[in-house]
Amino acid sequence: MTGRSSGDARLRPVGDYEKRYVDGESYVELAVPVAVPAPDAASQAAAFRAAMEEVTVALGKPSIMGSHGDMGPFYDSEPLWGAPFLRWRGRPDTLELRAGKSGPELVLQPTDPAENWFWRQGVGEEHAISGFFGSNRDQANVGLGFPGGWTARSWETVTRSLGDFLGALPAETTALGIRIGMPLYGRNGRSAPLLFDVVCGDRLSIACFAPDEVDAAALGWGTVAEFPHTASVFGEDDPVWRVDAGGPGEPKGRALAEMLVATARAAGANDPTDLIIGGEAGYVDGYHVTYYGLGLPTG
Fold first, then answer.
1. Region 247-256: what's the mean pLDDT?
2. How far is CA 155 from the centre of its chain?
3. Bond into 92 cis (ω within 30)
4. Which of 96, 69, 285, 91 is nearest to 161 (CA)?
5. Residue 200's beta-bridge partner residues?
6. pLDDT at residue 2 above 70?
């Protein structure tokens, strides 16, 4: 019992799914709800952000941040609006602020089981790991291991992974208090020019740099006149083609992903590995970030 209006604490004992990741522990987490906001994405993201700011004042900047995507620790399902998390890594225990089913939760967990679970998901199969993971140079991260990733083998896989990522992105960046800038390059057999620029803070904006022979308007792209908010992100004249996908809970992830994939293919990308995440995207507010859930190469 916590005596908080947000609800009681929950102990998660080691069960059948957790046994392979533990070494003598009886429990894999103690979760304490800290708020129960309205279920919409904007309210959930705001509550997470408020909890983050409060804990950061007490403990300092977290050493790890990211999103669990659609697969939480030990195979839990995650909230539909987004699955951001922050970790203050320690030994033998780690404190995590997590997006829970009803609102943000503080989770005390033994460090090794959680990290062992994550590391062992790097098996190379499609969708083996979702979300993204970032760590900084905090001394607490000494000895931190990183799993291998996976590679998308079909355009349908890219569409699904991009759709999941883009649909939740503004809610997650708002909750975490970060801004992501992700250039995507499209290999066309001769070179790999910049094709898209995905920018997300409290709103998601995407610019398109498709060659002139691609009919961007027919594929769903608009101009600054149609998406005036993008003027503050990309300027008013160049690039010509862009879209404002909205704030928390607003992006239509699947539709956006279909538009990006159709544009990439029209621009000459023949294989999913021809869509490349720019290395610049890996540096976010002092964290080095790996976008595990996309299944795309980085270059």
1. 98
2. 20
3. yes
4. 69
5. 180, 204
6. no
pLDDT at 7: 77
Secondary element (H or E) of residue 176? helix 155-176
Q: What pLDDT shows up at residue 190?
A: 86
Residue 56 one-letter amino acid: T
Q: How many CB atoms lie within 10 A of CB 3?
A: 5
**What pLDDT shows up at residue 279?**
97
Tokens of 24: 């003598």
Core vs surface per residue 101-128: b (16+ CB within 10 A) or e:
ebbbbbbbbbbbbbbbbbeebbeeeebb
- Rounded to 5°, angle at Cα 226 from 244 and 262: 60
pLDDT of residue 189: 85
- Nearest alpha-carbon partner for 269 in 166, 161, 196: 196
pLDDT given for residue 122 in this prediction: 86
Burial 198-215 (b: 16+ CB within 10 A, else e): bbbbebbbbbbbbeeebe
Which residue shows structure tokens 């006149």?
225
Other Cβ atoms within 10 Å of 154 Cβ, number: 12
DSSP bridge partners of 180: 200
Which tokens go with 174? Answer: 């708002």
Per-residue pLDDT of 35-63, as tens digits, reads 999 999 999 999 999 999 999 999 999 99
Look up residue 19 and give its DSSP letter: G
